[in-house]
Amino acid sequence: MKKLGYILIFAVLAACSKNEKVQxxxxxxxxxxxxxxxxxxxxxxxxxxxxSLNILDYLYYYNGGGIAIGDIxxxxxxxxxxxxxxxxxxxxxxxxxxxxxxxxxxxGVAGNSDWxxxxxxxxxxxxxLLDIYVCAVVGINGLKGKNELFINNGDGTFTEKAADFxxxxxNYSTNVAFFDYDxxxxxxMYLLNHAVHTVNTYGPxxxxxKRNERSGDKLLRNDRTHFTDVSEEAxxxxxxxGYGLGIATADFNNDGFTDIYISxxxxxxxxxxxNNGDGTFTExxxxxFGHTSRFSMGSDAADVNNDGFLDILTLDMxxxxxxxxxxxxxxxxxxIHKMKIERLHYHEQFSRNMLQVNQGGQYxxxxxxxxxxAATDWSWSALFADYxxxxxxxxxxxxxxxxxxxxxxxxxxxxxxxxxxxLTKGNKIDKKAIQMMPSGAVANRIFKGSKNLNFKDRSGNWxxxxxxxxxxxxxxxxDxxxxxxxxxxxxxxxxxxxxxxxTKNNKNFLKIxxxxxxxxxxxxxxxxxxxxxxxxQIKQLFTTRGFQSASEAILHFGFPDTTKIDSLFIIxxxxxxxxxxNLKLGKSLYMTSKENLEKVNxxxxxxxxxxxxxxxDSLPGLDYEHxxxxxxxxxxxxxxxxxxxxxxxxxxVKDINGDAKEDIFxxxxxxxxxxxxxxxxxxxxxxxxxxxxxDAPSEDISAIIEDFDQNGENDLLVISGGGExxxxxxALLDRLYLQQxxxxxxxxxxxxxxxxxxxxxxDYDxxxxxxLFIGSAAVSNDFGNIPQSFLxxxxxxxxxxxxxxxxxxxxxxxxxxxxxxNKDGQIDLIVVGEWMAPKxxxxxxxxxxxxxxxxxxxxxxxxxxxxxxDGDGDKDYLLGNWGLNTKLKxxxxxxxxxxxxxxxxxxxxETILAQEKNGNYYPVNGLDMxxxxxxxxxxxxxxxxxxxxxxxxxxxxxxxxxxAEILKVETLASGYLLxxxxxxxxxxxxxxxxxxxxxxxxxxxxNKDGKTEVLVGGNYFGTIPYHxxxxxxxxxMLQSVDTLMEAKDLGINFTQKAVISFNILNLEDRExxxxxxxxxxxxxxxxx
Length: 1088
Description:
The chain is mostly beta strands. Strands 51, 52, 53, 54 and 55 form a five-stranded antiparallel sheet that branches. A four-stranded antiparallel sheet has the order 1-30-29-28.
């Protein structure tokens, strides 16, 4: 039976079940693209679709061929091997001067398989001669052949001997990697295979446990004369749902053993295999990565921030062209995404490139969006290298596909039952289906790296921007001039070499070639660490990288200083270390391992500071867990930008029962009981408070504990919200519980039926008791409408709305702080919220007067805290915003916009989110999302092609847009308001504080040095899959304007959890940090 397009079947199954623009000066080309007349590389991977083999029959028909680079004749010039899908493989001998000779026929390496894919050049038998391994796809639609191993005879010829080594697999192979996983001195092999869509490839994640011979990955141990399959005993998955497209090998945690990262396409998770050092691996993706690419393709590993730990870039298919974005299938709907996570137990996956930055070997942090690398369209191969020799990693990405099988109109066409029947017959309708797929020919991309990990797109400058379709790619110094050139294997076009021109004017390089003991003569797995002016760079030697390809076996460095490097450490595969010093740059270094070297001490090489915190299991008796009810906001209002029902729980740490010990109040979600825990000498005891239990239907968002009636006992005020209740539902009412003689009773409190968000207490009228500010968040079931917030005056525990201070509709409030910001001795108020600027209210003898500050600060503000960040003695204010690691963009000139109106005149309002791109505003949501709420748009846009690329003005009626209220966001950056003699100016935080929404600040002297610091936390999960999951903020300790400590050095990790609040908890003369999360158990850390 014909297979439908490779996105189609999964789609059908799923249906069933601060960024200012800067004008940059032009830079000269870094690369020169050489044509075939110069190089004599007369290889074209020509695809010729047939009735029995095309994209409808084989889902990876357009994946293209691979490349392997190696010096096969030991003349110090790297040679080239190119694989073909429907054409023969070719081997080209490097003759110097970037000219090559086709020696395929005499070498005997054309191959006998019908469809070749990945390849590697490796000395597999340790004889000093490089051999060639070639992967093949066998058994699909009559494809014949096997994986082949061409052994180098040393005379320019090769003999195929895969069977002799036990490597003649007849699988659906994608690529191969050689490395020494068991540190026994020889090179083992990982065979990366891929599935094809069948009924056996869908289902829960645990089907990966059932091994599949043809599509399952394999780990082969080198037993010197033969390779043994040890996959199962080593802990390597080989199931029917593994769609392996990428493999990266590296010692990611710097323990001396090689780990493995596998990129899997479609619904299967990527795999992160941590080497246990005993011949086995532990798959650890979910605990080490918050989320991954959805359609993971090629990958590469390199230390992009020069911290000594290798990071990972995985590629996907997110376009940056508005037409292609709106016409192409990308992320799942919220319901399907939730089903995969909760019922099928797959990990979080989102359709975009991800730059996973290694946090000291402990976990990874995705900075793909903030780095500028997230969207490079249909991307195959990534190659990190310092192409411009400035000491910072750049990256080349090969892209393009002849036809886009994820085109929505194509998917809709072939999903038709009648069309499916015709497709199974293999008639002319096949051609029509293929013709419906638009071209995916796009330009290759290259990005210049920077110290802050903001990559600058140099496509069109460093390389041309022509729409060649490149799949496999590799780098090598083909002309031995000291820089790295690039070669690509292209579909239906000649292979191309990009000659790097940098060393014509820049000799800041060091190129290292290793000679290690047999059989691993090339020293695969070795590390090189170079030090210059107090800065380090680390490289590890693995040739397999990118996609279906293997680069030259060299270690290559660039440096910002042109003279020399201070020292160089070579860590050989047996973890012995060889040291050199005062090396001049601009040369190639050939190093041979020495005998009797010292073993490296990784703890000394990568020292860790004593952590400030130590996580403990819990405190005795503290068994609280916050559990959200299963309500999803998008079911009621599909077009809101994010949820509002997931902002709890309330939490307060304070002495409740008057015994001078700190107790804890935890709020609850809808229909869950709030909880009070009294501290005892042994820990905590949960209390039963009947007055609270009666209010279980309410959702507790904020709370405060104070002695409001001044009777010597603390009382409790709980703010209700949750985003689910609306109108005059009693569950929205805030509740005041006064304590008398150790008993709580609920008393009257003003009624105003708002979706509450925050309560803060202060005696703003200076009458001796505590008054209240109560802020309200977005209006339930009417997102975009502005709610009322209130000041409440206290009269001995009886509260009333302060009508003289009528705040009214000040915004969608999220947080507030009472503070004397003008130093007049009176307590003032600052309020922050979403779709608004921070609002300052100056206190003039009990009258709060709005006070203007710097304009253009409308944001999605989540939190505020007071902190003297510049140490000048006055009060600055920290502001938590959405962050910059997001698809959303906003600045003063081009704000993020949200149109609020009843667009379809049905009595209910809608919101349309729009952002600027190339001078126009486009809706953030695609056609399906818009039509799901505004059905009338389907008539205007009957297909996706008619909708794709349309501006907001072309989609909606002009009168509607003029009538709509427009809410704006002018900055998404978190930062601080710097107090300069009473004038406040906004300064954005550095990138580590921009990776996710900041929801919590806590000022405290954590390290007991007499100075306070601020602990920063956040993350937020209430968005549709298109936006991803903001789960990457692990925690930051902010010490001053220029000083911060990251979580890996503190002993904390808040990734994959949504922080609601921090509290210091004193128990038995010891301080603890209590971290409260949404929809999770709290965590407790001991302060060291």
